Amino acid sequence: MTAAVEAVELRRAVWRQEYGYLSRDRVRTEWLEEEYRRALDEFDALAGGRLTIRVHAPALLREHDEALHLARRVLDEEGILRLALNHLLHARERMARMRELLDAHAALERAAQKVERLREAVRVPRLRALPCVDAPARLLDAARTRLREGAYSRSAYLAGAALRQAAPLQPGDTPDLARAATLETAFREMREVCAETAGLLPDPSTDLGGDGTLDAAAALADEGFLALGERVAEELMALLAPRFRFHRALREGGGGASATLPSLRHRLAEEARDEDPWTAATRLLWQARFDDGLRRIRGGQEALEHAPEDAADEVPGVTSPASASPLDDSSSQHGERS
After folding, report:
1. Which of 28, 51, 67, 305 has the fewest CB atoms in 10 Å of its CB?
2. What is the C-alpha to C-alpha distance for residues 223 and 219, in angstroms, rounded to an integer?
3. What's the CA gap between 300 and 11, in Å, rounded?
């Protein structure tokens, strides 16, 4: 029987006593005295959690004790049973709130253990800012705030959400060599891209490869946090996606990266656009190549326009239209007619 149904049964018993269907002694003994003893037993069962309640919500303990004291006085002084019932129901409601508080606190403790373990594993600030680590921590902070505000059910829900996000990223029991090899390859590619494009940055020492971020991320698999390392690699790859596109465009243009990056860095400093720097660098790189190709085409056209008419004869295999023999033309036409 649920608490709501029990409350209805108690109210019905008192109502029947008031209208003469039940004796006062029977209702007092069988319903209200039994409810009072049950309230005392529930309170005794909180022995391990009273300190937690006293720290977070001492008013709940005080109100519960006061309600039971008033109910006991009414029952002992032969007062109105409805007043005793109201005090007992108020004590039941305070007990329910205390249980919600203890459940929320227990959920917070379970989630905090997992979340703090993730934060300790990723010792670099940039990794702690990734969603896979930052999101559970934010949920945990929100759960603590709701606990202080007295929203215990919401606090337990948020703590559970933090736990569900952090639990799959905990260390595994058995290592997976294939997954570890794939993860190592991903970090090697990221190191390569960062090393070959670091020249575009004003201060390469603050890059992912220079401040120890990639080294700390790659070490997660060695420490047993394989799932966390995979999630970190996925989020770093998403973060570096514009940089990977720039690196691919840089390689497609051949060599000369050491000369290209300083000029691109200078042009990026001159432009004041609200655009991702790597996306802007890719755009400037292709724009520079397009302009260079266009200049080459125009230079070739100008060279042909200013070249002498018999210049093509000096080139083996090239025959200018002006030097072509009419015979050749007629013979070719004869061959076409035949």
Report:
1. 305
2. 6
3. 101
| Domains of the chain, residue spans | 3-102, 105-169, 177-300
Cα 70 to Cα 87: distance, rounded to the nearest angstrom:
7
Cβ atoms 146, 105 nearer than 8 A:
no
Contact of 255 with 196, CB cutoff 8 Å: no
Structure tokens at 244: 């990977």
Least confident of 55-59, 70-74, 202-206: 202-206
What's the CA gap between 275 and 271, in Å, rounded?
10
- With contact defined as beta carbons under 8 Å apart, do 166 and 136 qualify? yes
- In this predicted structure, the answer to whether residue 222 has a pLDDT above a threshold of 80 is yes
Is a pLDDT exceeding 50 seen at residue 15? yes
- In 196-312, which ranges are E strands? none
Q: Which of 181-195, 274-288, 319-333 has the highest mean pLDDT?
A: 181-195
The total number of residues shown for the chain amounts to 338
Q: How far is CA 217 from CA 212, 220, 259, 273, 277, in A?
A: 9, 6, 31, 32, 24
